[in-house]
Design goal:
mainly alpha; 569 residues
Length: 569
């Protein structure tokens, strides 16, 4: 078991190094770029298999205990150790990270983002995976900080070199916000380690703050909380997130929403709650207030983007929705109850599955339509998506209702449990205040349902665009407004609607000048094979977690009870 965990954490680093070799060992392709993309799929696949084997070998009867541990002295003078281990809190996040990275590598093999060499892209993706996995596996505060910071460099370059419009500004905003927050967080981590005499997270959690005065705990939680809040992100420290998501390539958005945001909330659960409980108790009401404000703010921002004439970018809308969803996670943590913290951990996993899938779909929609502008999509390029690409549209609608927390799907349980936690917060916390936060969060669920259903209605429904006049005989930019069925999977027009004149293919007139068609005139492919292979596992897990929540709660609940009680094994 300990060897498996070491492989999971270190394996991507080795894969990143070998990806930079002239030819990745043992792999061939029609060109070096294809070979290195295959290398990325292979390495991430091995890491996923190792993480699944780790999960299968995990002792669920002792989910509160640290398992597969490695503990080696690294810097003896400061008592910094290479200490690895997993429990019921970290294991689901570890598997989620390995799964999403593998799906991103697989998707990139078929749809590589436009940009520099695939070699650098694969190396950065693997480096990003290693940092994320290490964050969830290390049990030393210094190593936690190093892993926490390790992800910044690859994500910066993924946005700046493979992103879209305004990518450099978005990348700089991302790294400046997170670096400033992390610098403050480091001060808090050092304060805890130096005052307690150890950086070992298990020993500190067992002490449950007994070796730290209340003033030290309050100061440490303030400093650590700022760094974690920026990464989560917590309103109003979220402003880097919409720009980063809008500019990032599809796989960058998936990793950012599905994994990196979880690092901030995981830090609250793993570090702040058990190590400095008095400090958390002091700030819990304020964190609850920020969580409630973030839930409503994110929903209102999405409603503003989805209204007609707003020209809101769909990727930006999903980014703002993440602010709201992560607000539920923070609310559960702020309640400081087993119910609320379990709900927060469940909501973390559900958000990774659902929003990761949503960014895959929005990225594919942008590739097909040539735009992610909602007003343009609703007006022409994406109208009647049910008729043009029914399987794609059904998948988009399913993901939207999963994101709004429909009962029976993963998103429901996390939101419900976090509100239950706010209904009856920990002793000493103001119940009227948390009841108010719960009511505001309930309003947020209604607003979330409103904007997501509006997106589905505007993008997926409506009449098919029709061509009122005969189409020209040659392939020019004067294409008709509707697109017939095509070999790549586009759906035929509705049988009830008048027949539209087929749009001429470029091959019909190879010598004629050709202008790229407008969004409404682009052939719109339905769900492709590699897309189904990438996305359907997320669909299946979303349904499984919704119908069988005990699969996840059975892991987290014992560990949460022990963590809050001040025990660690």
């Amino acid at each position: 078991m300990r060897i498996l965990l070491a492989v999971v954490v270190v394996g991507p680093l080795v894969g990143a190094a070998t990806a930079l070799l002239p030819a990745p060992p043992g792999l061939k392709g029609r060109d070096p770029g294809q070979a290195v993309l295959r290398h990325g799929v292979l390495v991430t696949g091995v890491i996923l298999a190792a993480s699944i084997a780790l999960a299968l070998g995990f002792d669920r009867d002792h989910a509160a205990n640290m398992q597969a541990t490695t503990d080696i002295s690294w810097i003896a003078a400061l008592d910094v150790r290479v200490h690895l281990g997993i429990d019921g809190i970290s294991l689901p996040l570890l598997v989620l990270t390995a799964l999403l990275t593998f799906l991103c590598a697989l998707y990139s093999y078929f749809k590589m983002p436009a940009g520099p060499s695939p070699r650098a892209f694969v190396a950065l993706l693997l480096l990003l995976e290693s940092g994320c996995l290490a964050t969830f596996a290390v049990l030393d505060l210094v190593l936690f900080f190093l892993a926490f910071e390790m992800v910044l460099v690859p994500m910066y370059f993924l946005i700046a070199r493979w992103g879209g419009a305004k990518r450099e500004a978005a990348a700089w905003k991302f790294i400046l916000f997170t670096l400033v927050g992390s610098a403050v967080m480091l001060l808090g981590l050092l304060l805890i380690g130096l005052k307690a005499g150890t950086f070992d997270m298990v020993a500190l959690a067992t002490d449950n703050g007994s070796g730290l005065t209340k003033s030290v705990q309050v100061t440490a939680v303030l400093a650590i909380g700022i760094g974690l809040a920026v990464k989560a992100p917590v309103w109003p420290l979220h402003s880097w997130l919409p720009d980063a998501h809008t500019a990032a390539p599809t796989v960058g958005s998936v990793m950012l929403a599905g994994v990196l945001l979880k690092m901030g909330t995981y830090g609250f659960v793993r570090v702040a709650l058990p190590i400095a409980p008095d400090g958390m108790h002091t700030f819990a009401p304020y964190l609850g207030a920020l969580a409630a404000a973030g839930i409503v703010y994110g929903s209102l921002a999405c409603l503003a983007l989805v209204r007609r004439g707003a020209h809101g970018d769909l990727k930006r809308l999903v980014a703002y929705s993440s602010v709201g969803h992560m607000g539920f996670v923070l609310l559960g943590i702020a309640s400081m109850t087993p119910t609320g913290v379990n709900g927060a951990l469940f909501a973390n996993i559900a958000h990774g599955l659902v929003t990761g899938l949503l960014f895959f779909l929005v990225g594919a929609l942008k590739d097909r339509a040539g735009t992610a502008d909602l007003d343009t999509l609703a007006g022409s390029a994406g109208a009647a998506l049910y008729g043009r690409a029914p399987r794609f549209a059904v998948l988009l609608a399913f993901t939207a209702v999963a994101s709004l927390g429909l009962p029976g799907l993963a998103g429901f349980w996390g939101e419900m449990l976090t509100m239950f936690g706010a209904f009856d917060p920990a002793a000493g916390l103001s119940r009227p205040a948390f009841l108010t936060y719960m009511a505001v969060a309930g309003l947020g669920t209604l607003l979330t349902a409103a904007y997501l259903l509006m997106v589905v209605r505007r993008v997926c429904m409506g009449p098919l665009p029709l061509q009122s006049e005969p189409a020209p005989a040659t392939g020019t930019s004067e294409h008709p407004a509707s697109v017939p069925a095509s070999p790549d999977g586009a759906s035929p027009a509705s049988l009830d609607a008048p027949r539209a004149t087929p749009a001429p293919l470029l091959l019909d007139a190879p010598d004629e000048p050709y202008t790229s068609p407008e969004p409404a005139q682009r052939p719109f492919a339905d769900l492709r094979g590699h897309e189904a292979a990438t996305w359907l596992p997320l669909v299946a897990l979303t349904v499984l977690a919704g119908l069988w929540p005990a699969l996840l709660l059975g892991l987290t609940d014992p560990a949460v009870h022990q963590l809050l009680a001040g025990g660690a094994a």
